[in-house]
């Protein structure tokens, strides 16, 4: 799977652990930065990853900041992105089964490497159920489309 990964300075240490691990799992990973632990603006990195997912350059995206919240807010501004914060494996599973989430946002402050790996594994391995959930995801897409038209 093609996965774009990005982080701000608070998510940098966890990102540095996840990228090589994902590559060892056989994924095609692009590291969108940051490349250091000095202060940066999280929207810059969230936008890079979200646009890769939106335009089809990546199948999925993983973002890491202090809480995951800022990254999530930013990523959801990009057309076609369905991002959420993921605190545990339960939410990771349901976010895929019910919402077809294509970008996850993790807390670099609250998750250790093993917990993050379990969450990412669950999220990557879980399929979208479709059915009644597809109808709901389509309603989200229609709302997004209408909002884009209203701006034009």
What does it look like?
With 152 residues, this protein is α/β, with parallel strands linked by helices. The chain contains six helices and five strands, in the order βαβαβαβαβαα. The chain has helices at 12-24, 42-54, 69-75, 89-99, 113-125, 132-151, and strands at 2-7, 28-31, 60-65, 83-85, 103-107. The protein has a five-stranded parallel beta sheet with strand order 2-1-3-5-4, with helices on both faces. Helix 2 (42-54) crosses helix 3 (69-75) and helix 4 runs parallel beside helix 5 (113-125). The longest helix has 20 residues, at 132-151. The model has no long low-confidence stretch (mean pLDDT 96).
On the 0-100 scale, what is the average pLDDT? 96
The whole-angstrom Rg is 15 Å
Q: Output the number of helix runs.
A: 6
Q: Could you say which overall geometry the principal axes of the C-alpha atoms support?
A: globular
CA distance, first residue to last residue:
34 Å
| Poorly predicted parts | none
Largest sheet, spatial ordering of strands: 2-1-3-5-4
Computed structural class: alpha/beta
Query: How much strand?
Result: 15-25%
Task: Give the structure's gist in a few sentences.
The protein has 152 residues and is an alpha/beta fold.
Features:
51% helix; globular; 152 residues; single chain; 5-stranded parallel beta sheet; alpha/beta; 5 strands
Question: How does the SSE layout of this entry go?
Answer:
Blueprint: E1 2-7, H1 12-24, E2 28-31, H2 42-54, E3 60-65, H3 69-75, E4 83-85, H4 89-99, E5 103-107, H5 113-125, H6 132-151
Parallel strand pairs: 1-2, 1-3, 3-5, 4-5
Helix pairs in contact: 2-3, 4-5
